[in-house]
Amino acid sequence: MAKIIDITGYIDEGMWSYPAPYPEISIDPMPPVPWAGGKVYVEIFNGMNSQTGTYLETSAHYFGNDNSYLLTDIPAEELYRIPCVVFDLGQLKAPDTGGRAPVTLEMIQACPAASQIKAGDAVLFNTGWGQNWFNDNFLDGPYLTKEAMDWFISKKPFLLGSDLARWENLEHPEGIFDDFYAADILLAGPFINLDLIKQARCLLTILPINVARTSCAPCRALVELI
Questions:
Q1: What is the count of structural domains for the chain?
Q2: Burial (CB count <10 Å: 0-12, 13-18, 19+), residue 139
Q3: Is residue 21 part of a domain?
Q4: What residues have CB less than 8 Å from 95, skipping those under 6 apart?
Q5: What is the CATH number for 145?
Q6: What is d(CA 102, CA 115) in angstroms, rounded to the nearest whole number?
Q7: Omega before 95 cis (within 30°)?
Q8: Measured between alpha carbons, how far is residue 148 from residues 94, 95, 103, 158 in Å?
């Protein structure tokens, strides 16, 4: 029987969030519902947005909903059991000089997965940052260098994902997303539990909630070890 690893981050109060104007999630009880004929228990997800938790994203996030395709345009079968390769970079830490740790081309090419990646794969890279999901420093995780992003793009993946919420070096932007979105690659994450995947190749199923008129939405993501 295949082993399944859930790499979906928990949506709950106190989890990481992008800064304002993004809202923070709160889960509140529904007031009494008079027409229900008795007690019912329902929760209201206040502050939920299309980039809450683990999400899947199309290039419309970058080019605009009128200039690219939306999530509802992706057939569900294309998101089920996608051939996947996982790059395990270990536990990356901030440099002694301060700032965020870079994910470099040398780190990527040193992974066993580098020789196994195939065009059309889902590609995930683990930095060990998923364990900070409920910590205030979650947005201070590593960033992806332009050289590393260009290498990933050159491999023509179907999807690229990681345990990071901020891939760009915002202090000194390198423009990593211009060519990425132009290449029509799906973006996914941030994930948790990528460190539990101890093999380079696996299968990924990633299913966003079926919301209209959006480029991205929260999803459930599962890795199947084969």
A1: 1
A2: middle
A3: no
A4: 101
A5: 3.50.30.50
A6: 21
A7: no
A8: 18, 18, 7, 17
**pTM > 0.85:** yes
Q: What is the pLDDT of residue 95?
A: 73
Q: Please give the pLDDT value at position 2.
A: 78
Name the nearest CA neighbour of 216 among 161, 141, 178: 161
- Can you give the residue range of the structural domain that contains 172? 3-9+50-225
36 occurs within a structural domain: no
The CA distance from 63 to 8, in Å, is 26
- Specify if 124 maps to a domain: yes
For residue range 121-171, list pLDDT tens digits in order. Answer: 999 999 999 999 999 999 999 999 999 999 999 999 999 999 999 999 999
Residues making up the chain, counted from first to last:
226
25 lies in some domain: no
